[in-house]
Design a protein that fits this description.
single chain; 96 residues; mainly beta; 6-stranded antiparallel beta sheet
């Protein structure tokens, strides 16, 4: 199934969090927090402004982003967990 987000929304696949702490302690799945960074897999056309013009998205497909912890809606697409969120919920684009 192909999903295309509308307007200023984007679909992000969460990146896996570390299973070990910096000290080498293994963190069980029940104690892990949901990661707040992910990879953008689809973007909408942009935000529609009051005058009817469309502002293009600053975030593109393939960008690694940092987003708010409680932002967006969790969905399953083709058996994988994704999150749909607004461009405003992205805090930063992470450069490698």
């Amino acid at each position: 199934m192909k999903v295309r987000p509308l307007h200023d929304r984007l679909i992000v696949r969460r990146l896996e969090s570390e299973s070990r702490s910096k000290g080498g302690i293994i963190i069980p799945d029940t104690a892990k927090e949901k990661p707040a960074e992910g990879l953008v897999v689809a973007v909408g056309s942009g935000k529609v402004l009051e005058d009817g013009a469309t502002r293009p998205m600053a975030v593109g497909v393939g960008n690694k982003v940092l987003f708010s912890k409680y932002a967006g809606t969790d969905v399953k697409i083709n058996g994988e967990d994704h999150i749909i969120l607004r461009e405003d919920d992205c805090l930063a684009i992470l450069d490698s």
